[in-house]
Automatic annotation (TrEMBL):
GO molecular function, one term: carboxypeptidase activity
All copies of domain Metallo-carboxypeptidase C-terminal, residue ranges: 332-428
Species annotation: Campylobacter vicugnae
Full protein name: M99 family carboxypeptidase catalytic domain-containing protein
Record keyword Hydrolase present: yes
Carboxypeptidase M99 beta-barrel domain location: 272-329
Annotated D,L-carboxypeptidase peptidase domain residues: 29-259
Keywords: Carboxypeptidase, Hydrolase, Protease
Amino acid sequence: MRKIIAFLTIFIFASYAYGEFSLIKLGIDNNNTVLVTGGIQGDEPGGFMSANLLARGYEITSGSLYVVPNLNMPSIIKKSRGINGDMNRKFDTLSDKDPEKDIVEQIKSLVLQPNITMLINLHDGSGFYRPKYINKTMNPNRWGNIAIIDQATLEGVLYGNLEEIANKVVDKLNTKLLNTTHKYHLRNTHTSDGDKEMLKSLSYFAIKNGKAAYANEASKTLPVHERVYYHLIAVEEYLKIAGIEFKRKFELTPKGVKKALDEDLSMLVCGKFMFYSPKSRLGYIPLPSDAQIKLDCDNALVALTKNKNEYNIHYGNRIVTRFTPEFFEYSNLIDEIGISIDGNEPEFIKLGQKIMVKNSFKIIKKDGVRTNIIGYGTTREDESDIKMSKNMIKSRFSMDKSEQIYRVEFYEDSGLKDKFIGMILVEFAK
């Protein structure tokens, strides 16, 4: 049986100027909402990948969860702790001239929403924390694999028994260790007693404003998928304590997390475009001819940047693919096209889908629409009504590393220059 994979564009992102981050709301809003954040420091992929997988791989069946995976997307793109200084040290006083002033104020406003009752900030820290010095990797100056609180209690506040709750999370984590060296500890920074750095942090801003706040650190010594594994164990325990029920779409094991992360990376849906296990470099991609290019994507960690005459698609702090643009006006003339798959009766397929083909496909001619099968060498302007098999398409034009996926583009024939309508992807069975 052939398989049609459909995609839904959920969020709209532009080029990530300051003041932009993604807020994903899961469940049904109520007065007991947990807020999970990642990416406030752009060189901590365990934190922002965990938050993103939480947003995309979980269903909240009871309660309310807000997730911000990309608090500092410009720094994530640059693999920098903070391209304009450490954003997590800007929540006390901040000059109006600071380029991140607006986004910091937006984050503060989010935390101060009356329905937010708990903040969980996800980080990656160096080495493995130990109360006493063991070696250069395991000592009191390391921040890896700890649960952090600013003080033991926050009187009169829901979930204000900070030390008690954090210890429950630490105990849970320590039943799920992959190695005894990964042991988690509680770290109370006693911020109000004079920790000058932590006084400026997002977590302490929440504490000062009567919100329970916790941070979870995973060690930078670990591969990213293992950091995510530990972060999600911690987040799940906090959610259970807050009475928020959920379903997970993957197995919470290192192997299951790695698979979920790989699958998330392999399928990037960006408005009229789809990138499925893309090659490191693609050919010409039709972009809108207006000066302000927008990228509509269903993934908070995807961004578009320009480098001279090329564009880069980023997923977190990785460049997934590069391509050369070709500029067109955009058209919404049609949103579906007739296609015969493997000789079957034609059916209408929505643009923005990937279809699975065993042997061949044929695009049914549509008046006013020009079909361009990328990689099919022909002098014909319109490539509809051709029974197309894989051996008729040059493999170097494939979209993916396995050379199984090809794109079919559709244009409105408007006289002087075509207008780009959209595309589908065709995946040939191996």
